[in-house]
Amino acid sequence: MRITRLSTHVVGTPWRNLTHVLVHTDEGLTGVGEARMLGHTDALLGYLAEAERNHIAGSDPFDIEDLVRRMKYGDYGRAGEIVMSGIACVETACWDIVGKTLGQPVWRLLGGKVRDRIKAYANGWYTVERTPEAFHAAAVKVVERGYRALKLDPFGNGHFELDRAETLRSVSLVEAVRDAIGPEADLLVEMHGRFNPATAIRLAGLLRPYDPGWIEEPCPPENPRALAKVAAHTDLPIATGERIHDRIEFRELFDLQAVDVIQPDISHIGGIAETRKLAATAETHYVLVAPHNVGGPVLTAANLHLAACTPNFSIQEHFNDFADAAIKQVAPGLPEVVDGYFALPQEPGLGVTLDVEACERFPRQRAKFDLFAEDWHLRDPERTGPRGATAGP
């Protein structure tokens, strides 16, 4: 079997575009992969066109390790977000082809299951007014939907520091959510790399009474030693990793003992096997894995296969029950979250099939997502302009 060509299909949403890649073979089988790019979709499509000519066409889809190696190192330059995302799309699609050929779900090919269901947490649910009452009501809907875990960023457009009024407001939102979901549900707090270490440490202390399961990206991701300072001054677990694009770059975080939960994004770190290798390294440091996932059903399916076979997997992020739920129709077959858990996929390959006609119902948009804009949490690009300036008259 040989790869003959790629085709790409961009699914648009107001705040992100999802790029789907179909890998076609000379035996008629196809596999699908997906990546979410923020502001770099054209760059991804351009890279895939060149990689198709230089590395992909003519390759055996079963030789995944060789294909990833050639795509990562065969162009000499250092691979970053664009290249690693392109690799991830193709690598995931190859696993889909291998699974379909052998009649097995991908998780069986990666060592078999270590769990019978996969715990999920909800994101994208707090697109409401930034008041305790609104966040409380929205959180109630999440637990009514069956989730037993959710995540929020309560910090507005905070950057490096947070003034007293915003600090009190942000903490009041967390307090309201904890009250809504009760003591038994998991509450995860996102910081989106906003703060300097001193501010992050202070906020961690204020959040401690609400027992968050982790604080995520308390500092910008470029400086592991700043993160280590935060970790040394709080007993709350530290989660990070969604903006790291090479598993090798996690080494310093492990060495510094600066992280308790890593959050690699399959679609940005080279695919399923690269993430599984990283998870095995994390296991030797007693670090958990909770993959970042803001994709649609294809990327979520890839995450479920990884979770099924990874001993130190913790919990899976999921957006599409609350944000852009309609895009689930572009790739039917994904299990639904029931009582807070995904069932394991059982169909061959990834278990989802890209519906190209459905993709066309979601044309590419001028997606915008600016974490430092006012009301960014609404994920509505019509409401915000650059750096917090309100759009329109």
Automatic annotation (TrEMBL):
Keywords: Lyase
Keyword Membrane in record: no
Domain Mandelate racemase/muconate lactonizing enzyme C-terminal span(s) in chain numbering: 132-237
The keyword Lyase is assigned to this record: yes
SMART domains assigned: MR_MLE
Name of this chain's protein: Mandelate racemase/muconate lactonizing enzyme family protein
